[in-house]
């Protein structure tokens, strides 16, 4: 589990702990909810991801379910977006997911069972002004999950994307009030989502019951992204 210290990731960690699983949570800070193994890691750095997996394996055994959730935004309109803003978001959101999936897959192949779950976003398919970098990484995760499905689908491993809409976290808390009001008006459910609602979808994709679901994009967005 990456980015398990706060927000959606924290809720996912808590959901898996509540179901009795052993959980390792890697994040920049290495903080984790009580009961989970916290590991400091930079997902953009393959060596750091390798070390985090090695620590998780030493404590808990092979990783059966991996959730690539760590993500950042550096929002601004394309005209003002620097190369550094673009690269930073790609490095964490897309290359980070690649590093995690790559390190996860060998033990999963050995076990002939595995679950790779990427946390994407409604904006990956819907688009969002000021998020050219972020939206590109989130749609990139869909191509990654579908290619992994074709590579690994015959080996008991699934790869899926969850596409949350606007979820109440620190990432959305910084948005101006009128922006949030505008979003609420556009969301058929009429409200922002809660982190536990994303965690429930992750738990489903991780379950045995979801063994025939792969290459899917599962929206958890109150209907915002319908048709995309
Ligand atoms: P937060 O900003 O609340 O938390 C992000 C987490 O990712 C933190 O734990 C942070 O670590 C970790 N992280 C950031 N960069 C790195 C890195 N380089 N290496 C390791 N860990 C890192 O985000 P949210 O919970 O809001 O979002 C989680 C995911 O859900 C993201 O992928 C986001 O794009 C996606 N999402 C969020 C939506 C929302 O409305 N909130 C909507 C759609 C998608 P630390 O705590 O140490 O800083």
Concise structural overview:
The protein is an alpha/beta fold and 228 residues long. It has helices at residues 7-18, 46-60, 83-111, 123-126, 132-152, 170-173, 177-186, 195-206, and strands at 24-27, 37-40, 65-68, 114-119, 157-164, 217-220. α3 links the parallel β3 and β4.
Task: Give an overview in words.
The chain has 228 residues and is an alpha/beta fold. The chain has a single domain (7-220), classed as NAD(P)-binding Rossmann-like Domain (Rossmann fold), CATH 3.40.50. It contains eight helices and six strands, in the order αββαβαβααβαααβ. The strands form two sheets. A four-stranded parallel sheet has the order 3-4-5-6, sandwiched between helices. The chain is globular, with a radius of gyration of 17 Å. The model has no long low-confidence stretch (mean pLDDT 97). The structure holds NADPH dihydro-nicotinamide-adenine-dinucleotide phosphate. NADPH dihydro-nicotinamide-adenine-dinucleotide phosphate (NDP) binds at residues 2-3, 5-9, 27-29, 41-44, 69-72, 92, 119, 121, 164, 166-167, 169-172.
Give a quick set of tags describing it:
two-stranded parallel sheet, binds NADPH dihydro-nicotinamide-adenine-dinucleotide phosphate, 4-stranded parallel sheet, 228 residues, alpha/beta
Output the radius of gyration.
Answer: 17 Å
Extended strand count: 6
Q: Taking strands numbered 1, 2, ... along the chain, how are they ordered across the largest sheet?
A: 3-4-5-6
Helices and strands, in N-to-C order? HEEHEHEHHEHHHE
